[in-house]
Amino acid sequence: MKLHVADNIKAIVPYPPGKPLDELEREYGITDSIKLASNENPWGPSPLAVEAIQGCLTGLHRYPDGSSYYLTRAVADWVGCAPEEIVLGNGSNEVIEFLVKAFVQAGDEVITSHPSFLMYQKFVQVRGGENTVIPLRDMTHDLETISRAVSERTRLIFLDNPNNPCGTLISPERFEDFLRSLPETVIVVLDEAYVDFVDPAERIDVLSRIRKPDGIPAVVALRTFSKAFGLAGLRVGFGIMHRDIAELLHRVRQPFNINLPGQVGALAALKDTAHYEKTLNGTREGRQWLSEQVEELGCRAYPSHTNFFLIDVRGDATVLYESMLRQGVIVRSMKAYGFPDFIRITVGTEAENHRFVAALAKSLKELGYVAG
Questions:
Q1: Model pTM?
Q2: pLDDT digits (tens, 9 = 90+) for 156-166
């Protein structure tokens, strides 16, 4: 084929998807594996969400509500803002795409950190924008260097808070100082995919920021139903922002971007506070227990404000990943993120956590990474 393809599209490296679980089991000859690599909710979806989705299936011949009227209002009530300050997306990553479409043109600049969510940079490349990537410092966002990197061409700054893969958090005080160091022409995007797991006392007050005083940059917060609500397969997320920004994003949003099961499932999940609290409590307890067990095995467990955490395994993380995979325990090697001796694991159920520790102990011993 003789195709005319723009250089910015040619330069994009496709997002590397993981193999399906059943394909990994077939490839490695294992069964009954557990997946602790993708920061999913191990307790599954809300039973209320499942029931609501089952009840809507006979209506699949109809288009969904193009404005997601009821879900938008329920999300606004949950957050404590006005419906006009909410934009829903097919996953919060679609809201990221809306922001880039609305505010970035060829030659404009967007600042991100590394390591962080890869899709920030890919959406910018599609638009022909320029990515300025600032390395983390001490495993957290280097706000001072980011501030100095801002130019008259900077349109957006993306900060995942907590950071993935490190699980670190920007304090409200640091964030406030950071905002005041920036020009008003920049939009600061806080990707809060894991904020449900953060102690409320340590969260940034995004509502006061989206209704910003003059002279302070606009703030947009992103959240998702994929993690604490256990609905990753439905792809529903949302952004919280000033209504003027929301109005602009609706101009680039396609109608029907949230499908019918997504709308009714997310709406029901918001009402299931018991499942939500079970997830938060189980994550908190499991993270503490796992961290203690990992340290006893001679590794280093890094503190985290999320449902995952990093582990320094004192050896090649990819080799250890392969060793654990053969035992049916799937974790994430951080070699591609610049941490060759680290793995990242999701906090699982009690049974999954015990199985992970047993597999880790066996692999560490066989590989000789730590004493014991």
A1: 0.93
A2: 999 999 999 99
